Write the structure tokens for this entry.
Amino acid sequence: MADAAAREDAVVATAPEMPALPIPIGDGTTSVVADDTVWNGDLQSNGSIHIHGRAMGTISTKQDVFVADGAEVEASINANSVLVAGVVRGTIRCITRFEALPQGRIASDIFAPTVVVHEGAVITGQFRMDAVTDEAPVAKPAPALVQRRAARGG
């Protein structure tokens, strides 16, 4: 009986630990939509934005957006990077990176040069992995018209 208990302890002791998930920490420049808060409209910040409640409209920042587990977002998101553990519906545009954590549920078209999807996350939409910038796209000149003359002769 002692041997069985020792084997059970050995199995429990050798089980691999779940890797730490990259949950961001707020600082003095972080704007927070709290658990019991509903934001409806444009949310703009130069710092990071953490959403723990509900947000609808447009979310824009030069830093990062974190959508916490249990949060719901129906918005267009424009940010340096976006990390989703909650629910997001809308277009997501990231300058550097998009990441969906295992509990994330996303129904969005996602534009980001780097995309990370953890096992368990659910995404419905399209990915476009081009570089995204704050600048408006540069118009390309129209191709020159070329007319060809019919061959002469007979």
About this structure: The radius of gyration is 24 Å.
